[in-house]
């Protein structure tokens, strides 16, 4: 069965920051015999517009091909002729600069192959950069005419006459060969063209950033650039925040635009001896430490230090980049055979490298392949750190949060500092850029009318409160206990629990008195803690467990969720002591936090949802709802959210060195089962495969969709007639393969439910990770925080012209009130539609769904089902830390495990 229903064509605050200037764009040349390289190894990533490497249905190996129920030739819905016309119009500025192509130009594409002296291919960005800089130095005729991605692709305005080139980096010899790609010989990029394809956008992106990437004083990660001359901001132990520029070429209704934004990155501080870093770790954690103290400190705190050091890339004595895996013996005691002679590690380093170890008594570090080296021969490397602790995250957010007016000025400072119009490469290709950001018209829609159990409200500022409000549909708790792992005193605990119960009753949640308040051991013996919790669940036969944590203990949190969600089917809620108590300024004693009532009201939002209740819903009396959405809601509609979470950036390690690399991801799918589209049970999928690229797919999506539609049918005694999917986390280069695969999986699930079951499906991608920002032109159009303007666009701001794509049905909506920093609108793309959405209906629908996020009295930044899928995927990471109950489906190189939530909870919003 196949159907083509497509309708058209596809597609930190502060002043005095150092700037990336044109003076820095020249870049240092690289000698053909020796190379002084930037100390940071830069691995380039593909542009968001590059052709995706995802495995689509039609390109899968024979053994994994699927029955095609969705026609892959279905085109994306075309851009609607009639745009959004609800609400009040006002002017905004977007951080898009129009790109002007003065002339057409033809380019020749070359495939670049770099090999070392052993004829082995090299794909290092460092080596690629060294090669092209030396090539341009020797062959000046190609200056400003060549673009190179430092890997495999070279673009030239003229034909290369020298197609083989030998060079040296750090004394090592390499050879580069340039092979023309035949299909590109006539590739022409035309000026004033309405549409540009993926390959042309990729070339233009290389054009915009080539000079920056050649500059040794500029650090480059994907499309972000950081000036190394700028003083960094220290945000943690051996951790700096750098601020720079993000540049991306975007196709739009204006033509081509340069999307320019501020960028931030957390970087490990480089060129530091690992002993100094270890000493600083213990200085911070305990007391003053020097290298002589390290042996004792490491023996006492092995796990803590190792956990910290695993976040840092190091350079060993051979200048090889490695990661630390463990500690091992020491250089005095560790011996091994060298040419049939047993030799101590410290003696080997003296003989082989002429290194006299100063601290041979310190533990060695293990760096893989059973290799152990002294800690003192290692230095840190400047590279990104992804796993930040809460303090580091807070410091980064605080420094990255820039008020809108300040951000707008900083963007202009970056634009003037980079000075692309003076770039000789852009001049050679006949390109210049407008000097001003784009001004355009936006619309402001009123917030949705919200209905509680006892009243309706009309919030127009993106925020409201629960005061005096009974939840729309409430549930009750009969058996529950409290376990305190924080050491809270008895009086404070009783005060808190009394407030919690009374707050729940104010919202009409039935709360029996707790059966017990128990003190749990917090001695970090987590096995004992787990057994204690399990024992108390069984002893009291509870349905709800309230846990008080100390210092946001993540390990106890993980144990609680695994036990509650998977093993016993008990609703759990964790609260940190820091939210309950605060230090009195006058006495210095800890007292009950005056805001504890608000805390408990927020907890009640979560508790009622976990119990199966609904806190509030969209009011059917809302005028826009009546005119545009009532028909949709009355037609047995089911709304889904889909998200994929990546627990680790690399492959899962195996004890078998010959085993294939296994990449893991956690996918979550939620689906509404009630007529108000407010209640979303979920499915969690653990995905394993041998291809990193396939992680973005929900490969066996049919498992989750089948289960969720079955829940809907069980509750409503009928099947949904319309399915609307909000998909998070898909970049534009992945639109077609992801949509084709997942639409096919959705159709497969429908066919499994009932032969001939063919509901109307719409598939919408929600993008959060983009760099478009909107700034109100007039002060009176700014959002209000209390009595004051906060410089952001107001909630309900819609943009669907000029800066949107020229060919796809896409739009921006800023649905939340930005309190800190600059608000980021959500970017929506309609990739498949059988429900005849027009602009007014789809934009209003998406915006109104931002008002029903059950755990918050705000209009959130993206639709509630997408938010729920994100929460659920994050919960899946907790399950993924330990092997839990999995129902597996294996298909070729892909393995999907449907995590078995306990029957008591699988129809509830356990994840919220």
UniProtKB/TrEMBL annotation:
Pfam families in alphabetical order: ArgoL1 (PF08699), ArgoN (PF16486), PAZ (PF02170), Piwi (PF02171)
The record's InterPro entries line, in alphabetical order, gives: ArgoL1 (IPR014811), Argonaute_N (IPR032474), PAZ_dom (IPR003100), PAZ_dom_sf (IPR036085), Piwi (IPR003165), Piwi_ago-like (IPR045246), RNaseH-like_sf (IPR012337), RNaseH_sf (IPR036397)
Record SUPFAM superfamilies: PAZ domain, Ribonuclease H-like
| Annotated PAZ domain residues | 273-382
Disordered: where is this region? Answer: 1-65
Q: Which first-to-last residue range defines the signal peptide?
A: none
- Basic and acidic residues bias spans: 38-47
Q: Where along the sequence do coiled-coil regions lie?
A: none
Query: What are the residue boundaries of the Piwi domain, all occurrences included?
Result: 544-873
Q: Where is the composition biased (Polar residues)?
A: 19-37, 48-59
Superkingdom of the source species: Eukaryota
GO MF, one example:
RNA binding
Q: Which family does it belong to?
A: Belongs to the argonaute family.
PANTHER family referenced in this protein's UniProt entry, alphabetically: EUKARYOTIC TRANSLATION INITIATION FACTOR 2C
Q: What is this protein identified as?
A: Uncharacterized protein
Q: What is this organism's lineage?
A: Eukaryota, Metazoa, Spiralia, Gnathifera, Rotifera
């Amino acid at each position: 069965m196949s159907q083509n229903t497509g309708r058209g064509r596809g597609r930190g605050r502060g002043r005095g920051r150092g700037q990336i200037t044109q003076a820095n764009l020249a870049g240092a040349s690289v000698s053909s015999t020796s190379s002084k390289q930037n100390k940071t190894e830069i691995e380039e990533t593909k542009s968001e517009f590059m052709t995706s490497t995802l495995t689509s249905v039609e390109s899968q190996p024979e053994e994994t091909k699927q029955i095609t129920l969705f026609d892959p030739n279905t085109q994306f819905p075309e851009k609607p002729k009639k745009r959004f016309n609800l609400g009040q119009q006002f002017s905004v500025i977007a951080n898009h600069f129009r790109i002007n192509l003065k002339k057409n130009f033809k380019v020749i594409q070359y495939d670049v192959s770099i090999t070392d002296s052993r004829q082995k291919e090299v794909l290092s960005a460092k080596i690629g950069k060294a090669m092209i800089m030396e090539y341009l130095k020797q062959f000046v005729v190609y200056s400003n005419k060549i673009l190179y991605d430092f890997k495999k692709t070279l673009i030239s305005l003229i034909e290369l006459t020298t197609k083989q080139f030998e060079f040296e980096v750090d004394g090592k010899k390499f050879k580069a060969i340039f092979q023309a790609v035949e299909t590109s010989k006539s590739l022409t990029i035309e000026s004033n063209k309405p549409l540009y394809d993926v390959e042309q956008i990729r070339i233009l992106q290389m054009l915009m950033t080539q000079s920056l990437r050649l500059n040794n004083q500029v650090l480059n990660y994907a499309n972000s650039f950081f000036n190394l001359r700028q003083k960094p901001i220290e945000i943690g132990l051996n951790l700096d925040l750098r601020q720079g520029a993000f540049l991306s070429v975007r196709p739009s209704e204006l033509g081509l635009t340069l999307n320019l934004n501020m960028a931030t990155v957390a970087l490990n501080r480089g060129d530091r001896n690992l002993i100094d870093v270890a000493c600083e770790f213990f200085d911070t954690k305990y007391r003053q430490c020097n290298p002589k103290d390290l042996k004792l400190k490491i023996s006492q705190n092995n796990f803590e230090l190792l956990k910290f050091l695993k976040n840092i890339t190091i350079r060993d004595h051979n200048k090889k980049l490695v990661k630390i895996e463990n500690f091992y013996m020491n250089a005095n005691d560790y011996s091994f055979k060298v040419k049939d002679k047993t030799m101590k590690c410290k003696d080997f380093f003296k003989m082989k490298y002429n290194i006299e170890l100063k601290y041979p008594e310190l533990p060695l570090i293990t760096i893989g392949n059973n290799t152990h080296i002294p800690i003192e021969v290692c230095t840190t490397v400047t590279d990104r750190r992804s796993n930040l602790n809460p303090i580091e995250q807070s410091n980064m957010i605080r420094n990255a949060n820039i008020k809108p007016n300040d951000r707008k000025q900083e963007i202009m400072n970056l634009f003037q500092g980079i000075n692309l119009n003076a770039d000789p490469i852009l001049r050679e290709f006949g390109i210049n850029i407008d000097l001003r950001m784009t001004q355009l018209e936006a619309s402001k829609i009123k917030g949705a009318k919200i209905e509680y159990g006892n009243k309706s409200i009309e919030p127009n500022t993106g925020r409201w409160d629960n005061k005096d409000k009974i939840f729309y549909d409430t549930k009750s708790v009969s058996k529950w206990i409290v376990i305190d792992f924080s050491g809270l005193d008895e009086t404070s605990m009783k005060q808190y629990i009394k407030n919690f119960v009374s707050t729940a009753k104010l919202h009409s949640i039935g709360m029996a008195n707790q059966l017990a308040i128990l003190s749990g051991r917090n001695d970090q013996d987590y096995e004992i803690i787990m057994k204690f919790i399990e024992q108390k669940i069984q002893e009291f036969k509870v349905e709800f467990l309230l846990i008080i944590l100390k210092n946001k203990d993540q390990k106890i949190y993980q144990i609680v969720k695994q036990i509650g969600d998977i093993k016993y089917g008990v609703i759990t809620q964790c609260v940190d002591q820091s939210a309950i108590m605060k230090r009195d300024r006058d006495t210095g004693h800890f007292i009950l936090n005056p805001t504890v009532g608000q805390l408990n009201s927020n907890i009640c939002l979560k508790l009622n949802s976990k119990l199966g209740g609904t806190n509030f819903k969209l009011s059917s009396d809302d005028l826009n709802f009546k005119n545009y959405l009532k028909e949709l809601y009355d037609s047995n509609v089911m709304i889904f959210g889909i998200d994929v979470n990546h627990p680790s950036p690399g492959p899962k390690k195996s004890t078998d060195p010959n085993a294939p690399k296994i990449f893991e991801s956690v996918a979550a799918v939620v689906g509404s089962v009630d007529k108000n589209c407010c209640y979303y049970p979920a499915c969690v999928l653990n995905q394993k495969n041998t291809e990193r690229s396939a992680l973005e797919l929900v490969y066996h999506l049919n498992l989750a969709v089948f289960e969720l539609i079955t829940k809907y049918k069980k509750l409503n005694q009928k099947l949904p007639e319309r399915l609307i999917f909000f998909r998070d986390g898909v970049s534009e280069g992945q639109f077609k393969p992801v949509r084709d695969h997942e639409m096919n999986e959705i159709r497969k699930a429908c066919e499994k439910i009932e032969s001939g079951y063919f509901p109307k499906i719409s598939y919408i991608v929600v993008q959060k990770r983009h760099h478009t920002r909107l700034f109100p032109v007039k002060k009176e159009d700014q959002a209000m925080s209390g009595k004051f303007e906060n410089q952001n666009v107001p909630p309900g701001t819609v943009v669907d012209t000029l800066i949107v794509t020229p060919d796809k049905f896409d739009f921006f909506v800023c649905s939340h009130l930005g309190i800190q920093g600059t608000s980021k609108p959500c970017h929506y793309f309609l990739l498949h539609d059988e429900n005849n959405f027009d602009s007014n209906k789809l934009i209003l629908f998406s915006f109104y769904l931002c008002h029903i996020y059950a755990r918050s009295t705000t209009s959130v930044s993206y639709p509630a089902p997408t938010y729920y899928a994100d929460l659920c995927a994050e919960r899946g990471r907790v399950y993924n830390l330990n092997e839990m109950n999995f129902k597996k489906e294996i298909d070729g190189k892909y393995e999907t495990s449907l995590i078995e939530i306990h029957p008591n909870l699988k129809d509830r919003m356990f994840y919220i």
